[in-house]
Amino acid sequence: MAAGGLAGLLPAQTQLEYALLDADTPQEKENLVYQYLKKMDSRERDLAVPELGGDLQWLNTEGPISLHKDLCGKVVVLDFFTYCCINCLHLLPDLHALEHQYSDKDGLIIVGVHSAKFPNEKVLDNIKSAILRYNIVHPVVNDADATLWHELEVSCWPTLVILGPRGNMLFSLVGEGHREKLFLFTSITLKFYKERGQIKDNSIGIKLYRDSLPPSPLLFPGKVTVDNSGERLVIADTGHHRILVTQKNGQILHTIGGPNSGKRDGRFSEAAFNSPQGIAIKNNVIYVADTENHLIRKIDLELEMVTTAAGIGIQGVDREGGAQGEEQPISSPWDVVFGNSISGTQEDDVLWIAMAGTHQVWALMLEGGRLPKGSDLKKGVCLRFAGSGNEENRNNAYPHKAGFAQPSGVSLASEEPWNCLFVADSESSTVRTISLKDGAVKHLVGGERDPLNLFAFGDVDGAGINAKLQHPLGVTWDKKRKLLYVADSYNHKIKVVDPKMKNCATLAGTGEASNVIGSSFTQSTFNEPGGLCVEENGRLMYVADTNNHQIKVLDLDTQILSMALPILNPEACDVPDNLPVQKDKIRHLPKLPKSAPNVQLPSLTVAPGQTIQFVLKLTLPPDSKLNEEAPNSWFITAEDNSWLLQEQCLSGEIKDVSCQTIIPFQLPRSCLSAEAILAVKACLYYCSKGSSACMMKGISFSQPLQIASTNQGSLAQVELIHTFLTN
């Protein structure tokens, strides 16, 4: 591959981007792209993408795909994504539209390259569930060790890379919101190479995972809630794009929408949703976070009608709001809960919204009233309440200056001394509170103090910042016990938080992603639970056990997981993922980015049995900070000299770059060669203080060894010094 990965595209593509800004007509833009392709195609050496490893796991295909054999003659769009990422989900409609317009017969193939952020996302079965959940119908490869990510120097999710028919890199698009460019670049690339006879129309062996699975009453239920009487449940049957209202025994009372996605108001039989998540019920009115339609919907159970309460049906970028609901664009609402305004005369006159797409918490005024630190608002107004819109874990006394990271669950504790919203902030792996007196945003459990570190995840019971969660998606308040329950989704657990003591402990689940029912809480298991609720009297908890396609019922008095709720008289709509999870128990040493410098050290003369003390001194770029909760580490390798590594400590953590790291290494007493090369490598994650993007960088030091037979002294010290440069 030509050196530099995606950086090799930068000079030419930047010129193109500026030229496109000045172009007035579609024809001018097409001509500019065409001329750019002529220039790129005539390069002396292609910016080639390396072959995808033969040992990688593939989904939605008949078998592994070779980039340079099977996809030769195709224009390929590589989508580097991770399934937790809301920005990656926002890109999927663009990819769906692109593959609807161009098929493999036309010469286009999209390949999802899943490069995980969280450890849970590296597990193949969890990626299978995500592919089903988000209706991904193109091939996906599990790049669990981020091999291709490093090879191409990808730096953030999502990133699209467009390849020509020789596997030659042509364009990259970073982030969401590039639909016009994606279609422009792809269409002109297809035209350019068809004119040169380089596009092949052969089919690629697609085998959709969903086609081999049996029907199921529920498909990836995201959220569940219970009415005040405790007699009716409302279930967001997310994968079937519908809302179910059932009795507490599971008997269906109403089916609203489904089984296919759509965007229609009207009677229950004609209404349509698109991957609905959060729901809130009061009397006979239900509000729904219609996530992928970017809408808040209202269901009237008496009239059996669905209407739109907020949103315009396309993804909004407005971070402030203030328009009437049906005129206000919003972005990926994920949860909703009723609450009270400060000056309102009616109960439940506000609908609080976890707006995952803009990393904020919004309010929809169901009646006129006033919010904390706000002015009087008219009925129907929809606006931002808390969160700047920057993806951060930032707490602040002023709600608009606080920062969230994909808030996905919200619950209300209206009673004193709480009087707050609890927020499951999934990408920061925290639970936060928002005061309903003054709007102050505070930390409760999980994460860490650095607002830019979104990698402070884990599975640790403890108090406050010492507790660790992994991508929690749901919270619910237990009024009876004054406790908060958390769906710790990627740890496959339900946690309980005492907000007074800030103590967080495992309530149910072993941490294994599986489906054990009818046992004590400590023996029961879940698979990425996304939502939960507690009935008014505090006895039963209902959990949307998303990847098990069930609603589980937990008795909080007896601490028994009594059953999975039977869904009675459902239509069999679609297919679940019930394959057992194979836990990846193999621990790999990190792989450095391909751009990682290799520092050649002077040869060192040593003797068998002697100790070398490597002193690692690393410096980050100005205004950067180490992500201390990310897997920063050093490790030692010795290619072709594995005898050097016997009974050695080969890796360790780097906690603080302001201090030097001491790495001791003792040579074997019996050496098999008079010469050898030892490599000491380091892998760091750090953030720029002005950005929430996390960079991964590496450095390798090669230490040649001359092994003498005579004693060279007891200790040899070698300094390993490197300063990382600003990108």
From TrEMBL:
<dbReference type="InterPro" id="IPR013766">
    <property type="entry name" value="Thioredoxin_domain"/>
</dbReference>
<dbReference type="Pfam" id="PF13905">
    <property type="entry name" value="Thioredoxin_8"/>
</dbReference>
<dbReference type="InterPro" id="IPR036249">
    <property type="entry name" value="Thioredoxin-like_sf"/>
</dbReference>
<dbReference type="InterPro" id="IPR011042">
    <property type="entry name" value="6-blade_b-propeller_TolB-like"/>
</dbReference>
<dbReference type="GO" id="GO:0005829">
    <property type="term" value="C:cytosol"/>
</dbReference>
<feature type="domain" description="Thioredoxin">
    <location>
        <begin position="38"/>
        <end position="198"/>
    </location>
</feature>
<dbReference type="InterPro" id="IPR012336">
    <property type="entry name" value="Thioredoxin-like_fold"/>
</dbReference>
<comment type="subunit">
    <text>Monomer.</text>
</comment>
<dbReference type="InterPro" id="IPR001258">
    <property type="entry name" value="NHL_repeat"/>
</dbReference>
<keyword id="KW-0963">Cytoplasm</keyword>
<keyword id="KW-0677">Repeat</keyword>
<feature type="repeat" description="NHL">
    <location>
        <begin position="521"/>
        <end position="557"/>
    </location>
</feature>
<comment type="function">
    <text>Required for normal embryonic development.</text>
</comment>
<protein>
    <recommendedName>
        <fullName>NHL repeat-containing protein 2</fullName>
    </recommendedName>
</protein>
<dbReference type="InterPro" id="IPR045302">
    <property type="entry name" value="NHL2_NHL_rpt_dom"/>
</dbReference>
<dbReference type="Pfam" id="PF01436">
    <property type="entry name" value="NHL"/>
</dbReference>
